[in-house]
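Course assignment 3, question 2. Fill in each field.
Student: A.L.
Task: Predict the tertiary structure for the chain below.
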Amino acid sequence: MDNKYDILQLLRSVADGTTEPEQALLQLKEAPFEDLDYAKIDLHRSVRQGAAEVIYGAGKTPEQIAGIVQAMGNRGCRNILITRVSQETVNQLPDSIPLDYHADARLAIAYPAEHKKRGRIVVATGGTSDIPVAEEAALTAEVLGNHVVRLYDVGVAGLHRLLSHLDDLMSARCIVAVAGMEGALASVIGGLVDCPVIAVPTSVGYGASFGGLSALLSMLNSCASGCSVVNIDNGFGAGYLASRINQMEGLEEE
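Answer field:
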């Protein structure tokens, strides 16, 4: 049982008599996770949360990643996200695993498949150096079924660049603001729009930025209402949260 649709079909088959209740119970018992010894794959994640389990690639061997991905693929999971994975690791994965790799975001999508996209999320960056983190957020949101608009290098050092995209900002259901240095972008955007803003501090900046701590504290102290903050360089977390917010708004197409 890899998604809500599968469980619903199983329940309907019990209702119409084509499946015995005992057999249905057995399938549900066997479904929650698969034990690979080094990993216990949560196969009910998509039922509970609407998306398959995400694989954090850092610290895992190519063999471990391949084993997890293949087990999920065999159970029908598609668009499996592998975050923080290096090109070197990806090169060692078997050719039998269909894979789209995005080196700038250090993110791979296994068993990629077309799917419906809804709503609109804007991902904006203060500078070009913030793009790798922003791409992690944007790709995560896209894989989870959202329309994403990218506005890159629109930081406060040239405010007119941001203001030229007011239509995009004001038509978004959620905005991810990615910035290093002093992290002012999130506050500025938060003062312009009526949708939630997710601030992502990045480790971009000179010595006194303390590897992103300065941007993190600035964003936490934002005077603009409606801003939330994720951890330093956590593009994935921002993209996932933005997807949740966007898809709460309804299923209508843009």
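Instructor remarks: The chain has two domains: 30-110, 118-248. The mean pLDDT is 88.
Grade: pending
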